[in-house]
Every structure is written in structure tokens, then in C-alpha cells.
Amino acid sequence: MNAVTDLASVVMDLPRRDAQDKLTGRTRYTIDNIGADMLHAVQVRSDVASARILEIDCSKALAMKGVRAIVTHADAPGLHGIGVADHPLFASDLIRYHGEPIAAIAADTLEIAHAAARAVLVRTELLPAVLTMAEALDEHAPLIHPDWQRYELLKEGAPRAGNVAWEAHVTRGDTDAAFARPDVTVVDDCFRVGRQSHVPFEPRCAIASYEDGRFHIQCSTQVPWTVRNVTAKVLGAAASRVRVTVPAVGGGFGLKFDCTIEPVAALLARKTGKTVSLCNSREEEFLSCLCRENAEVRIRSAVTPDGEIVGREATVLMDCGAYGGEQIFLSTMTAHTLGGNYRLGAVKLNSRAVYTNTPPNGAFRACNGVYNTFFLERHTDNICAAIGMDPMEFRKQNVLGDGDIGATGQVFQGDVLRPMLERMEAISAGAERRDPADGRLYGRATTVGTWFVFVGPSAATINLNADGSATLVTSGVEIGSGTMVQSLPQIVAGILGIHPADVIVKTADTDASGRDLGVGGGRTTVSIGSASKMAAEKIREQILEIASEMLQTPPSGLALRGGRVEIAGRPGSGMTIAAVVQRAEELFGPMSGTGNFTAPGVPSLPGCAAGHFIDAIDIPIFTVHDCEVAVDPDTGHVDVLSYRVVQDVGVAINPRAIRSQIQGGVTQGLGYALHENITIDEHGSMEQSGFEHYLLPLAQDVLPVEIVLHEGAPSIGPLGAKGAGEIPILNVGATIACAVARATGRPVAELPLTPPRVLEMIQGHAKALDFAHISPVWHANLARR
Amino acid sequence: MTFPRSVDEALNDLAAAGPDAIPVAGATWVMRSPLRHEVMAPVYVALSGIEGFQRIDVTDEAVSIGPLATHDALAQKLPPNPDLKALKRASARSANPGVRRIATIGGNICTAAFAASDFAPALLSLDAQIEVRDKAGLEWLPVLAFLESRKSRELPWLVTRIIVPRTVRLSAHERLPMRKAGDYPCAIASVSIAVDDRGRIHDARIGVGAVEAAPRRWQNLEQALEGQPVDPALTETAARDLIADFTGRDAVDAPGWYRTSVLPVLLRRAFETIRTDYETRAS
Amino acid sequence: MTIELTINGEVRTVTADPRTALLDVLRDSCRLTGAKAVCREGFCGACTVLVDGEAVPSCLRPIGMLDGRSIVTIEGLAHFETPNPVQQAFIDHDVVQCGMCFPGMVMTLTAFLETNPAPSRGEVKAALSGNICRCTGYERIVDAVLSIQDMRKVSGR
Ligand SMILES: Cc1cc2nc3c(=O)[nH]c(=O)nc-3n(C[C@H](O)[C@H](O)[C@H](O)COP(=O)(O)OP(=O)(O)OC[C@H]3O[C@@H](n4cnc5c(N)ncnc54)[C@H](O)[C@@H]3O)c2cc1C
Ligand code: FES
Ligand code: FES
């Protein structure tokens, strides 16, 4: 059906409809709807990392004036999770991390709730805490989930054992033979990254009520349907009894891709019969942040003298914290990121999600792709150094092209990365070298990256209104990226021949719209966009059919434009869409259309991948980043002098909005690369609990990103579009790291590159990484069942 | 909350409420006490109504600064003369614009728990005198003595004035945040020197902040520089030779070794500023 | 304690613990939710309002110290249908994302442009060092500010 819609009528720099209210302080986010007319809840959180709960005594707290209800594990015994149901809403017998919720209190005011929280007595017996993955993998390590074998499996087939929550393997070809070849150079590396905190400006918050026997949760989430389902699961209610609505969301970046505090508010609402608000303080938001996880890798490659990668083996450790969560799913993405970008001979990858007694981690914009790309691109540069090949030439020679197979045997279509690299080369060649020549060390690097669009189910309904406008009903949420106010109405309007301003976009309400995986993974434009396109096309057909009869012209001779059905080539002819709607009402009633979408499924090589949620990626997205840096040899400060991005966008539906996403995503990546750092102290608590110590990039820390949107790569997305919001952050850590390595001549093996870390490296005091807990023998790292 | 109109009234208010009361200036430190998990003091004695507390008087002999002068007011009012450069820069570069408009110099130097004050080293290098009032009366203290007395002095007391003497000197203030601006510096060096006719350093005063828990002068380096030319590289070397004088503070923002590693660099940078001013003055 | 102050041109009497942050009075008592509570420690600027014309973080201003003062919040800066030039520039350049930081950005920049109507790029960035944005990466905000031609319209409030 693409042909009927003129791309030119969809593509535009449509400005956001929500800007005026956001700029004048009128937009009400969930947090702004919390008021005096409801109860206020707080959670009682553990202040130790590992303990057995002997007793929870709420009697004192419950007796306090103004305290309306207290809930604990007894009120919500269900377990939830991804892949494995391992996560209770409140700690039951075991406390597994510092900050774990133990109880929640609803009271007339926040002050009373806090006072009551202090009055809850929790008697515990301290247990040894396992704070690092190295400790967790020790054969004598205590089990963080002694009952792991009894948990309900939500997806079968993955190796698990003890403190290893999940493993995803790729085994394609004979790596032993590849490494044994006499002509190859073997390059062996270890890398490590810390955690990154999302810091959405609106913290996670929820307002819940219990109405007509059903829960209503208004919350700041990216995933209304996940909130609905998880709430039902942990409360033991039918999912149909939970309604979730979502006003404007004040930033998510993946943190709100999980259900966390919402069921707590719901539980308290049912218990009190009143509306209950629960909102994380900034400190709680930090200390319970489902960060981009810390991770470690050992990777080795066998490369021929002319730069062919004949064998690759890698083991990645992903810290899931106390509960599996997203890391279980994300173990899948190692195959497509660390195992991506380049043609490989034989390959073996093992991605291990490891339990520790630390706060659980989660999903953060491009997730583990960000550090896997850092690992891969630094490793690639080390390979180039070892075989004496130019890094750009090496990449151009080895990037995946049309018909090449990826790690899991999926066949890639189209030459995308190589032409993108050539474009970057041309841009950089034409630009002035920005070496400040002031005694600082100058470096430049170009890296490549592969990410994907997280497709999967979406639904859309469009009602065509009597005035010719259309109402689009989906479960999409506007988290700031603009898809709900830009690309979706643009797609629908383009198909219906109306102005995007005449497409009303309903905010998410699980009672009004069909199931959806949520807003994240760059999927809104693609999945919800495809469902919306299908719904719009159904309406378009109806319009054309009716108009054809009214105008006595075959549908093929009609065009939808400017809110009218016109006889092709005769502007102003025909009739308004409103007139068609009127006619339709006479014939059969109001016009509406529905659409749906799900992952079409791309084949991989059978038997290659185990423990994966996605064996092959439906829509790959590629990117090329380039930067120049100056490193201060005296202080270790890294100054980014230029930053360039060539990004595969398929078709740019709103080019200006995509550029905004790139500028914002690169900036978050600069924070990750240089100074955003979450560390865990000896008690298992995060050391950064506010803006004083968690250093977000400020205006003076960033620079304008030079952007090229690369169009034309194949995509099954609507009109050929791809997701554009996630991938901008993918390569920033990698690119900065490669540039700093070249500037300093030191083997950068860790992020973030804080000034102390860089200075230590320049001074030659940094110890080379060599993980004792990741065996150089790949097989030795597999979970033994 | 009380609103005294005079120092005596303020001291009375503070005495009356005993340990429940604290003086409040810009409130940027006290309002964050919940974030530090401290109990908010029940009684605030607001100093903003006290006559003359906001005043900044600049003469050729001295700068007299009321304790409630904000960072911003100081940054604007201080003349650009080299002898005051350290203070002007400390005022203009610390914190961020919004905070600088409300946070005061008095509040800054009275906060004993705050290791990364920009003003403390700056005032140390400028040999400022602090006027302190308590029930015993009025006392003038050199900055260092004042800073050291903060935790032990019997309450209530108030800083009522800060005097920065002026002579023909050159000064500079160098701070090192982790980002380009906006965070607490992990090391601060403030320098003020006189230069004799032969172009040699005389009577150097070096204030070091954020490196250790409390700011202090670096006397060994001051002595080492006596009679030396104004030479940034030489100063850095001298500082490195003496760096064992400091035990860097390990904290979340930076490890101790890093603070002592970069301190000599800050001294070099301070002397680069000073050399430029010196050359400008000479020509 | 009872405090009388002017909020967006209206004289209001507030009864509150004098240690309460102005931000909480605005959000909870006055239900002016444009100023956002993000960090509560002076770093992010999302809570910025004008106190006697000066842009300051309202999370650090105890209400007891504001008796007789005049407060302007984002709601009182301009009628929403007639945005001021800073707001208009942000609309025209499509710079808003989640929007949480923007009320504070607008307050800071409006006051800033009144005193410095023709700033350099570096000056705009320095003026924003206490206004953090997690979404946009700043540069387009700066572009929009630099595009404002008629500063008098900003000061002609
Ligand atoms: C975001 C942010 C960034 C910052 N960055 C920096 C920085 O880079 N460099 C820097 O130096 N500082 C920085 N600061 C600290 C800031 O300078 C202090 O918060 C401020 O100086 C305290 O001043 P105040 O007037 O607000 O003090 P208040 O909060 O009013 O008082 C602070 C303390 O001093 C006491 N006090 C106040 N005045 C007197 C007086 N006259 N006599 C006796 N006791 C008194 C009070 O009782 C209280 O204990 C930053 C602060 C913030 C919020
Ligand atoms: S909330 Fe006030 S500065 Fe962040
Ligand atoms: S737009 Fe989201 S914080 Fe600035």
C-alpha cells in the first residue's frame, strides 16, 4: 500500500503540539497531579544488602494518627520477572539488596507516612552480601536465590545455575579450529563498564484508586500494559481488573520500561479504598534506579594478516543486581551487538546475567548495546594495531553488507554500513582538523554500531470524525521523544490526506486501546506506526470507495489531499472528507479502522542461538560515529572537539525531530563516556544519591553534533522508517574511548573516562584488566546445570 | 523564624532558642539538610534584616564585606584589580548562577562541614580578617584561626564582617571541577603574592581547598617560592616536590591521590594568570 | 507563620512553616505546578522562579524569608497564548522534549536576556550552568536563544 501514500505528504518538520503547554508550565505530568486530596505513600526500604527477615512489626506505625494502611509481602505474595518469575513486590523472607522495599505506608500526609516508616520495626539476621560478579561466581558464593530452581519459568530453554540468572549462547562454526590456524594473530582483551543512571526529571510516580472493583493507576511509565499485567500478577488479580492511564511523561530513557512502584500504590488504594499517591524522592529514584548495568567482558579474536576475522569468542557478564529483570532479556542483545557489525568466521558468545546483592538493573536507551559496542570497537582497534592495519580500512573491509550473515546466522540485506563509513570519511576529510595544539593530547576515532528496533505487538484504532478529523487511539505514551505528537500523526495524516494537526492523538489508556509492548526500543514509530498506518489505510479505502460512488470516478482516479477527496490532477475538485463521513453515516454509520502489527520474524540459523528471546533482528539499524578529543595530560580531562554522526534512519519522517534525538542521545552518551558514574559502596548501596555526585552533562559540557541522516536502507517500518531515538547513544562511549586511546597511546579498557581514571592511565598506573572470574577457555564459563 | 534587626538582637534570638536555633543567611546550605539526613533546625534566625550585612565597601586600603553579600554581588562589585582577582574569581566561578544570586560569603565560610568552599582558600590567600561577634563581644580573627575555631567556638556566634586588606599584590584562584563548571571543585588553589623590584616573589600566600577536609595555607611552598621568579613551571615543580605536605581526601567525587596530583597543576595555572597580570602591569 | 507575598501579581497570604521551600508552597498550596521539584539541591534549576526579578532556585528559598517579596512563576510570565520571545523561540525551533526542565530554562533565560540582550554562545551556556536538561543536549536551546532578534520584547514584560 506504500505506493498510494505520497512520501512527500508525510515527511515534514512538524513542530510539537505539546510545546506551548510545556513551555508555559501548564502540562500536568503525573507528579503534578499529586495533591492534598489523596493519601500519600512511602516505602520502607532495607538499609542492608543481605539479610533474613525475622519479623516485621508494623503495630506502632499503624497506631499513628493519620496512618491509613500498611502493606507487606503478605499482601502481595506474587512473583514477577522477565524469563523467570524471581521478583517479589516486597522482600519476604530474604532481603537481597540495600534499598529493597519491605513495606509501604499510606497516610494523610507525606510527613506522617515518613514518620510511620521510621516506626516500622524490621528485625533481621544479617547474611553475607555478594556485591560483585566476581564474588557471585565464586564456587563457594552464597546463593542469592536459594530457591532459584523452583521459580516459575516464563520462557524455557536457557541455561541457569545458582547465581547465574540466565545465559544466552551463540555457537556458530568451529572456533577451536579458527584459533589453531597457523596464520592468525590472536587478540585477547578484557573490558569493564560501570552503571549509568537515567535521571528522568520526573521520577517514577503513581496515583492509584480502586473504582467499581477495578484498579485505576495513573503513572509515569513507558509501558502501560506491563504495569497492568505485572500489577495483576503480583496482586493476584485478573489483568482485566487493572486500568492504566498515562499523562505526559517527564522522561523515561528506559527506566520506566519496567513496572516498579505502581502495584504498591494499587495495593494501598484497595486496602484504604482511597486514592493513593506514591512518588519516589530524588534520592530514592537514584538509589533504586534500574541502571544500565555494570558489565565485564573477555573477548578474543583470531584474525588473518589481511584482516579477516576467522574466529571470535567472548563471555560477557551483566550484573542484574538482586533480581533478573531486563538483564535476562538483554542477554539476547549481546549476539546482535557484540556479535554484530562485522563478518565473522566461527563465533561463540556467552552472555551471562549474574545475580548480586545490589540494586536491580534495568533497561537504558540502547541498553547493553552501548557497552558491547564499546567492547567491540576498542577490541577492533586493538586488532588493527596488532595486525598493523588502518582501522578505517579494516572496518570498511569487514562490516556486514548485503547477503552477509550475522552471529546467529541471520542474512543481512543491503549494503548500509560501508556506504555510511564512506560518507563519514568524506565529511571528516572535508573538515578542518581541530587539534588545539596547546599541549593537550589529540585523538580521533571512527566507530560503527548495530542496534535494532524492538518490534512486537501493537494495536491502533482510528475514528474518523464528522468534521473530517481523525482520532488515533493507541497505547503509545509521549515520553518526550515526540513520536506521539510528530511521526504518528504525520503518518496517519499523510494517508488520509489531512493535516497532522487534525489527527487527535489519544494518550494511553489500557481501557481504550489494544495491547502494546510499550514505548522504548525505538519501537513507537515502527510498531505503533505500522498499526496506525494499517488502520489509516483501512479508512482510506472506505473513503475512496464511498467517494468513488459519489463522484462517479474509480478510486484509482481519486486523491486524498488537504482534507478533500479530489479527482486526480484537478485540485479543488471533489468533496471534503467531512462530506464522505456524512455519507458513510447514512450508509453504515461512523467510520473507523483498526490496525495491528507484530514482529514478522526473520530467520536465523537453527541451533545457533540458545537462551535468546530474539534469534534474529527484524529491523537492524546502523550508525557511524566520529569524534576528535583533546586530553589534558595534567588533569585527565577529556575535551570533545568535534562529534559527527551518520545514522541510518530508513526514511526520515520528521528530520528535525530525529536530529533532536541525536543531539540529546549523544549528550547522554558523553555523560556515560566521561563522568556519569554509579558506584556501589561496601554496604551495597549506591554512592551517588543526588545531583551533587551524579554528574549529568551541563550546557558547557556539550557541543553541536554534526549530523547526516542516511536514508534508503531497507526497513519493514511504515513508509520505510526506522526507530531513531535509541541508537544515537549507542556508539558514544566507544568513539570517545577509541579517540582517547589514540590520543594517549594507552589501552582504554574502562568507562567512564573520569579525569582520575584518565590521569591514572596516562601516568601508567592503571592496571591492565585480566578477569580471574572469566576463564580464557570459553567453555569453562558455561553454566553447569 | 525570627527577623532580628541588629547583631545583638540576633545573638539574643539565638541564645534564647539555644541549640534549636541557627543563623540563616542565603539558606542554600540549611535548606539541603534533609538531603543530608539531618534534622532541620526548628528555629531559623534570618540575618537578612540586619543593617549593613549586605554591604560591600571597596577602598584603596581594604574591602569590607558584609557576611550576607552574595557570590553574585561580590563578583559584580569587586574591582578587577590583580590583588583582588582571587576573590573575584572565587565569587564568579563557584556554584552556578542561580545559587550565586542567593548564597552568601558568610554562609559559605561558616559551614564547617563543607570541604570544597571556594571562598575559604581565596580569603586565606588574601589574608582576610574575620569579625566575629558573640556574647563576649567582638573579635577579629585571621581567616585560618577563624576556620579552625568554627566547630569549637561556644554558640551562639556570628560572622559580622570580612575585611580584605589591599596592597600592591597579584592574585589568582584556580579550581578544578570534574565537568567544565557547576560541580564542587575537587581541588582549589588560591594565590596572592607581592613581587619585588627584581621581579622576585615576596610574601607568597597560598590557600588550598578541597584537597583535605579543611582548607589551609601551604606554608612550605610559600617559603620555597620566596625570592623566586614568577615562573609557572618552576612553581609546579616546587609544588610537586612538596606535595607530601598533603594527604588527599578520598571521597565520592575524587580519590585523594587525584587531588594531590592536580594541585601542582592548579598552582601552575594560577601563576600563569599572575604572570600575565605582572607583565601587563610592568609594561 | 503567616507570610504575605505577591505571586504573579496577586497578593497572597500563605500560612506555613517558615522553613518550607517556596517551591513546595507554589506547588502544594498554590497548585502552581509549572516549577518542578527535580533535585531540591540547587543543581538542576527546574524550580527556578523570579524573586524580585532575580532568577533563583525556589527549592532553596524558605518561605519565611520572602515576606513582602514579589514572585513570578512560569504561569505568570506570559499568557499561554501569547508566549514571550524565549518561549516562542523554543516553539519555533521545536526544542522541547519531555519538557520538565523548560519552565526553569525559560525563567532563567528570560531574566538573563533582560540584563544581557545580545549574548554570545558561550555566555548563554554559562548562564545555563544551573539549568540541567536530560533530554535535549542543549545546543538547540542555545540556537533558539541566539535567534531571538527583538530582546526588547523580552524586557517589555
Ligand atoms: C548547587 C550548589 C553548588 C555549589 N557550588 C559551590 C562551589 O562551587 N563553591 C563553593 O564555595 N560553594 C558552593 N556551594 C555552596 C554554597 O556556596 C553554600 O551553600 C553557601 O555558600 C552557603 O551560604 P548561604 O548563605 O546559603 O548559607 P546558609 O545556608 O544560610 O548557612 C550555612 C551555614 O552557615 C551558618 N551561617 C550563615 N551565616 C552565618 C553568619 N553570618 N554567622 C555565623 N553562621 C552563619 C548557618 O547557620 C549554616 O550553618 C554550592 C551550593 C549549591 C547549592
Ligand atoms: S529542584 Fe531546585 S534546583 Fe533542582
Ligand atoms: S526536555 Fe526533558 S529535561 Fe529538558
UniProtKB/TrEMBL annotation, chain B:
| Record Gene3D superfamilies | 3.30.465.10, CO dehydrogenase flavoprotein, C-terminal domain
Key words of the record: FAD, Flavoprotein, Oxidoreductase
- What range(s) does the FAD-binding PCMH-type domain occupy? 1-169
Q: Which domain of life is it from?
A: Bacteria
The record's listing under PROSITE patterns reads:
FAD_PCMH
Q: What is this protein called?
A: FAD binding domain-containing protein
Q: Which organism is it from?
A: Shinella lacus
UniProtKB/TrEMBL annotation, chain C:
Where does the 2Fe-2S ferredoxin-type domain start and stop, copy by copy? 1-77
Native source organism of the sequence: Shinella lacus
Taxonomic lineage of the native organism: Bacteria, Pseudomonadati, Pseudomonadota, Alphaproteobacteria, Hyphomicrobiales
**Keywords in alphabetical order:** 2Fe-2S, Iron, Iron-sulfur, Metal-binding, Oxidoreductase
| Entry-linked Pfam families | Fer2, Fer2_2
* Protein's UniProt name: (2Fe-2S)-binding protein
Against InterPro entries, the record matches this protein to:
2Fe-2S-bd (IPR002888), 2Fe-2S-bd_dom_sf (IPR036884), 2Fe-2S_ferredoxin-like_sf (IPR036010), 2Fe-2S_ferredoxin-type (IPR001041), 2Fe2S_fd_BS (IPR006058), Beta-grasp_dom_sf (IPR012675), Diverse_Oxidoreductases (IPR051452)
